[in-house]
Amino acid sequence: MLTDNQVFLALFSALVTSILAIRLAATLYQ
């Protein structure tokens, strides 16, 4: 059973990863 803290950490890490990927893509495809 996932706790609220584990769910929050999973969502936060996914958000950070997506932001980093978008920034990387924007840098590469300028």
UniProtKB/TrEMBL annotation:
Location within or outside the cell: Cellular thylakoid membrane
UniProt entry keywords in alphabetical sequence: Membrane, Photosynthesis, Photosystem I, Plastid, Thylakoid, Transmembrane, Transmembrane helix
Transmembrane region(s): 6-26
Gene Ontology terms: biological process: photosynthesis
UniProt membrane topology term: Single-pass membrane protein
Pfam families: PsaM
Primary localisation category: membrane
GO CC annotation terms, alphabetical: photosystem I; thylakoid membrane
Taxonomic superkingdom: Eukaryota
SUPFAM superfamilies found in the cross-reference section: Subunit XII of photosystem I reaction centre, PsaM
HAMAP family: PSI_PsaM (MF_00828)
Family, as annotated: Belongs to the PsaM family.
Name the record gives this protein: Photosystem I reaction center subunit XII
